[in-house]
Design goal:
Elements (H helix, E strand, L loop, with lengths): L13 E3 L6 E10 L5 E9 L5 E8 L6 E9 L5 E9 L9 E10 L5 E10 L8 E12 L5 E8 L2 E4 L2 E4 L3 E10 L5 E8 L9 E9 L10 E8 L2 E12 L5 E10 L5 E12 L5 E10 L2 E12 L5 E9 L5 E11 L5 E10 L2 E12 L5 E10 L4 E12 L5 E9 L4 E14 L6 H6 L2 E6 L2 E6 L5 E5 L4 E4 L3 E2 L5 E7 L2 E7 L1
Antiparallel strand pairs: 1-2, 2-3, 2-29, 3-4, 4-5, 5-6, 6-7, 7-8, 8-9, 9-10, 10-13, 11-12, 13-14, 14-15, 15-16, 16-17, 17-18, 18-19, 19-20, 20-21, 21-22, 22-23, 23-24, 24-25, 25-26, 26-27, 27-28, 28-29, 30-31, 31-34, 32-33, 32-35, 35-36
């Protein structure tokens, strides 16, 4: 079997270990098969603020080796302003790096989004010199209360001429203008084209009108879409909603307007819900539009246990003469802590119920998933049989140490992959002399031992450079190997070297 000698890749997942202090980052996730061959890995690099600068993913799981690289940039306020992804598929069609996606953002001085631009990359084959082009973008203005006032849509394109990509002009296309009620809910969205003579956005294009049946609703009871055609507004489509006294949705219906033949509304789909006193869905009917009226097409019923947890969802299709035909069923189970620990999906074929996929979960005392077993349906046994098992081990800090994947061979679970997580601590410089003078504690280091002298009752903890907690609730940590360690006293942290 081919052995892979690859650089260690770093992976995404940064979080603060201490408030305003050193940051622990997940450097790498290295995935290997039972033969210790590296088949997949990921890498993230960060800036001083623990923001992602570059992400590399290496994947050898398919028919050919693949690598993706994504680059990020940020402004002074920490807002992401640039993201660009490249792929190296290593196939006969593309022999080198190929652009995948790019997004740029600009912000107002107060951090509000000003502009977004999404780019495409055109390279139909390896014979063409690929190039980036601006695909679509939006520019925003705001009312004084922070709600969007206008949204300008711009777009561009690209084409191929021989072996070169021709980038076409990126131009402003449509201006959207928004109006709100006193609740801050949008009641009108208008779109305009630019008048070629005046250069102003005055040519009407379309509008969406929103109506609300009461002041407490966030969703509109009516959304009406209209197009401006030859000097008049012509309906296009609409969405109608009904709510109960508590504001729960009970009916939603979608309509389209036939402006060419009947000049009348025609239904697209409708759903009617029945709820319990908690607002949970007990059942619903779905409808289709046939011969000028709504016709039932599907029914669903949901059951709950005494704690309000969903335990069963059964779905029927409506066949001739409104008869119900079993379609699917989903079961849910819970442990004694109320955590969902099982889901099982069944389908029906010619009236026979067969399993499709079942998952069983186990959790630790911190509500973290430590095992997930999936089952598939055995047509021979007419029952569930094993498929995969995923075991997650956590370190002392409660972070993932490794994930082990196994597969069921018909008799037992065999090793498939192991995903190992590696951590390190970033930004762990020593505290300055000025800061040390202001502190009410002293750190004393001797061979194999760190001791903290402190005048008041403040929590003390000791960590290694991977972020692993060694000892806490003590001012002395001994039997240490030579190396660097982090001592946290209250909200302050120092890095020390143990001889």
């Amino acid at each position: 079997m081919k052995k892979n000698l690859l650089f260690v890749l770093l992976a995404l997942c940064a979080y603060h270990l201490y408030a305003d202090e050193p940051v622990v980052v997940l450097d790498s996730i290295i995935s290997r098969d039972p033969y210790d061959d590296l088949y997949k890995s990921e890498r993230y690099t960060y800036d001083e603020g623990a923001r992602v600068l570059k992400y590399i993913e290496w994947d050898n799981t398919g028919s050919s080796l693949k690598q993706d690289s994504t680059f990020y940039r940020y402004d002074a306020q920490g807002n992401e302003i640039f993201r660009e992804k490249w792929s190296y598929p290593r196939s006969s069609r593309y022999l080198g790096w190929k652009g995948s996606s790019r997004e740029e953002k600009e912000y107002y001085p107060d951090g509000t989004l000003l502009k977004t631009v999404s780019w495409g990359y055109l390279q139909p084959n390896a014979d063409v010199n690929g190039d980036w082009y601006r695909n679509i973008g939006y520019t925003y203005t705001y009312y004084d209360n922070g709600l969007v006032h206008t949204k300008l849509m711009s777009s561009g394109s690209a084409s191929v001429n021989g072996t070169e990509v021709v980038v076409n002009q990126y131009t402003d296309k449509v201006m959207y203008v928004y109006t709100y009620d006193d609740q801050g809910r949008v009641i009108l969205e208008e779109s305009f084209y630019k008048n070629t003579a005046s250069g102003e956005w005055t040519e009407k294009d379309s509008r969406k009108t929103y109506e609300y049946s009461n002041d407490n609703l966030e969703d509109a009871s009516l959304e009406l879409y209209e197009d401006y055609v030859e000097g008049e507004w012509i309906p296009s489509s609409k969405t109608e909603r009904e709510f109960d006294a508590a504001g729960n949705l009970t009916v939603i219906a979608y309509w389209s307007y036939d402006s060419e033949t009947s000049n009348a509304w025609e239904g697209s789909s409708k759903t009617e819900y029945t709820l319990n006193t908690n607002g949970d869905i007990l059942s619903y009917w779905e409808y289709e539009w046939e011969n000028g009226d709504w016709v039932k097409s599907k029914k669903s019923e949901t059951q709950y246990d005494a704690s309000g947890n969903k335990t069963l969802v059964h779905v029927w299709n409506v066949v001739d003469n409104e008869d119900l035909e079993d379609s699917s069923e989903t079961e849910y189970g819970y442990d004694d802590q109320g955590r969902q620990n099982m889901s099982a999906y069944y389908s029906y074929s010619n009236g026979t119920k067969k399993g499709s996929l079942k998952s069983v979960y186990t959790f630790n005392d911190n509500d973290q998933e430590i095992e997930k077993i999936t089952y598939q349906w055995s047509t021979y046994e007419n029952d569930w049989e094993g498929k995969t098992k995923m075991t997650t081990i956590y370190n002392d800090n409660g972070d993932i140490d490794y994930i082990k994947e196994d597969f069921f061979d018909g008799f037992d679970y065999l090793d498939k992959y192991i995903h190992t997580y590696y951590y390190t601590v970033r930004g762990t410089g020593n505290i300055s002399d000025t800061e040390l003078d202001e502190m009410n504690f002293k750190v004393i280091v001797s061979t194999g031992t760190i001791q903290v002298e402190i005048s008041e009752d403040i929590p003390v903890a000791f960590y290694d450079m991977t972020g692993k907690l060694i000892k806490n609730n003590s001012t002395i940590c001994d039997s240490l190997s030579t190396g660097a360690y982090i001592v946290k006293v209250g909200d302050k942290s120092v890095k020390v070297m143990v001889p």
